[in-house]
Amino acid sequence: MKQAVRQQIVISGVGGQGVLFVTRLIAESAINNGFRVLASEAHGMAQRGGTVVSHLKVGEFESPLIRPLAADGLLALKADIPDAHLLFMGPDAWAVVNSLAPVDLDSGKRGQQPAAVYHYDCDGLAADIGNVKSANLVLLGVAIAGMSHGDKIDTPLFCSIDDIRHVLFERFSQNKKILDVSVRALEAGYDRFKSMRKRP
Amino acid sequence: MSNLGLISCPRLFLYKPGLRLVSAGFFISGSVGGIMEQSVLMLGNEAIARGLYECGCAVATAYPGTPSSEILSSVASIIKQEPGQMHVQWAVNEKVAFEIAYAAAITGLRAAVSMKQVGLNVASDPLMSAAYMGTKGGFVIVSADDPGPHSSQTEQDSRLSAMAAKIPVLDPDSPDQAKKMIKLAFELSERYEIPVMLRPTTRVCHSRQDIPAGAPSTDHRKPGFEKDPARWAATPKFRFHLHRELENKLVDIALDADTAPRNITRGKDSKRAVVVSGVAAAHAKEIVSELGLMDAVSLYQVLQPFPLHTEFRDRLLDTYEDILVIEETTGVIEMQLAERSRVKGKVSGFVPRVGELLPEAIQNLIETFAGIDVTSYEKATPGGRRPTLCAGCPHRASFFAIKKASPKGIYTSDIGCYTLGLNMGAVDTVLCMGAAVGQAAGFYHAYRNEDNRPDIIATIGDSTFFHAGIPPLIDAVVQNIPFVLVILDNRTTAMTGNQPTPATGVGATGEKTAMVDIASLVKGCGVNHVKTGDPYCLDEFIPMLKEAVAFSKANGPAVVIARHPCILYRSGEKAGGKPREVEITESCDGCAYCITHFECPALVLDEESERVAVDRALCTGCGVCFHVCPKNSIQERK
Prior knowledge:
The structure holds 2 protein chains of 2 kinds. Chain A is an alpha/beta fold. Chain A contains 6 helices and 6 strands.
């Protein structure tokens, strides 16, 4: 069993991008690692293309919601991150953003740059591998790759690429096609980001 | 238990409704009293469903509504995997759902009905009466509230309805507690022969947590309805006696140890107490601990806000000088505490009366109450995207056609995805389930003496029409109201997650059911002009609407059934037709007419080129937008 963790992650995007799916994958990997989990989701009207945010708390917590300035990390499926989602980030938080161009999270009310910001064109890569809807898994791959990049991050995302792969295998054991597409997207994000970072 | 050949796991299992329990393949040292439990990731609504299943609930009914919908669909998923004797069904509306489950309960079986808070309004007629008559088998009403509101017309507090009906209500703080409270609710219901309400809120329904999944009940009861007209068909004289019995039950329930408030922290002095319930309790427990106030304030969690335990109430008022009550969304606990001068809460105005109590707000309330520094949080500038109809949604085509057929009409509408037609200016009113039809009649009467009477076009979804649209349609036929009712028939209850409608022919567990044909039903109500069309075929659909408007003006009600399956309802009726590739031609000058009037998320204004572009990730290839551009710049790529 791994060391006990306590971390709070905000996952931001718009309806239809798979925010809830990413949240569940990370939550299930937490349970697999023996951690307690509380996650809060947006359903119903909020899902119809509107802004969606989910909160994920891993470790010993009571409340399903993250307070402003308390999140350890932010996964953003849209580069255009609403102010309300940025305000969750704590002073030493990391952020991983689906964006072709570098993102400036310093602007607006937050008033300080996160400890580490990784951006990657997940939509572009998802299109390259032939499944435009899999940008969420590409982003998760990028995030996991980013955590091992060497920046000083106080609370890096707890799960490994193997953890997520394992959850996908469990979920889609009956549907090889979806499994293959999902694992490919996850690994593509992870591998491309790693190799991109290795270049001088 | 594991079908995957992984390491067999004593505690950690992943639970997915509709799938088996899957071993996660890790050991952890989490045994409770020597008995290993299986922990699985459950949505709050799944936890409630699991609770119903484990408690031997024999009949479970519901009408879908956010945030309650996944309760019944999760029950259905469980019994598909672990078949039993349980009857699970979506009912046509909450009132009917209530009556079905209640009748089963008075035969001695356990039964439950679930709905959202505004659904409880629809079921309030049987609720008020069932409280008097009571029950034999456990009867649990799950009414999910939506502080915020996130997906509702109101922020009403179902606990107030429990209070009005005079039945006990339990207020869970988490998915885990919601599951435990289902058991408590059944026990309480049987102990006092009274319906019991469980009132979860959005943050309980739509949170996920690792929760132990237990075995189902082995108590297989037989129904035994004992005829007792003085109770089950009571006349007013007997109702008086039933009312007195009900009051006596409440006195005992307010003394029951099982539902008594819990003391979370005991402050060293006896000055300040914080009383919390529901998810506000979860937030408060974390906040009091993080602020280091464990010794400074006494924290109490109320499990049963009504009736408030009398001993607790008296002890609280005898012991503490200053009392803060934090609850959603109305001051139900607070109202039951006398000596208001010492109580701060919703009624006193100390706690905001409107909106969800987010943890940062609760933190500020507790800081102020405890007399410590108040953390200041930046207020976010409003931003983000508003919800919109999906790319390829047939409702968008219907609304576009309605605006073409009757550009200056009054558009009454209803509850569902199609409420979002308001983004297109095609929805003017949304009141409650079924009101599109009743309000259409009201608008006609309001304008009946004017020279220029506006066209009146009502839109209502298929499920909403069955739920509450039929009585007002009959009324409109009787009064001969000149209006057009467009029934947006997408073959499903889309907004809440694609539950079947009476026209779908499929039940909650996927079983075949009889189908009710909407056109025949409308004709049976006495409507003489009933046409069915596919809104995707705008060339035919717009003239069909124009014809209906002309008919209604001369002859009274006309109905057009806009039939095209929801794009999210994959397992249902196939939409037919190949996806068509959309091309924006050189002639696009970026006027954004399509974006303003059609609002398809797949059509985006490219700021650099100042022209419209197609988001290929979202476009479904429905081809409806080929009709939209005034310059004909949106075309099919050949």
